From TrEMBL:
Keywords: Methyltransferase, Transferase. This is RNA methyltransferase. GO terms for cellular component: cytosol. GO terms for molecular function: RNA binding; RNA methyltransferase activity.
Amino acid sequence: MRPPRKSRPQDAPSWKRRAEERAVHPRDHDGPVVLYGLHSVVEALRNPRRTPIRLLATENAAARLAEAGVGDRIVPEIVRPSAIDRLLTPDAVHQGLYLEAEALEIPTLATIPADGLVLVLDQITDPHNVGAIVRTAAAYAVDAIVTTARHSPEATGVLAKAASGGLEHAPLVLVQNLARALQQLGERGFFRVGLDSEGPASLDETALDGRGLALVLGAEGKGLRQLTRETCDALARLDMPGAIKSLNVSNAAAIALHVARRARRS
């Protein structure tokens, strides 16, 4: 009798090979993503790292893609708006564009530049808020947005629309344990600042020098979790001179990034 054939890597079940590939090349979403709306689709088609799979477009929308210089990236299926309506929720504003594309490969904590600017999201679950944060992060050239693989919205659909193309420029870093990720950033020399309305000093008064900086934001209402707070190097507040002292988390992120960029320039 022949000896049993030794198994080779390619003999592994397809689901196991896919899992191994994800471990080596993690992605910001498991499976294809759905992108809709002009800005989201145009930025995705401009991104050489994003692989388009299927594009539905109305005649007018296809013409707008051509005007934007991305009309030759993938041949669209010309459809009526109602065909896209049926694929999305009733309140989705798709502007005649619907794109299915491969998820993006994402960086790891180790690949973030040592002097980088990072946002860390502590269980912020609303996709509109996260999408708005991603859009702001892209505007301020944030090097990465660190969030947990669980307790965070997926990088597709509503989040991608709210990000308005920001997902192509502000990469997500998905981690299993946020406190451990903050510890790793600290070991790499990052200064970790938790935004807290009861912080002992304002962010303007906090020394934000040229080393790596991680700004940590908590969910609206709940704020930072206790372990997250304890893992930060400092807690800082955003001083509001007006009658209302609290902000939507995406607005707080924008102000914090403005303060951080100004401090790091000076």
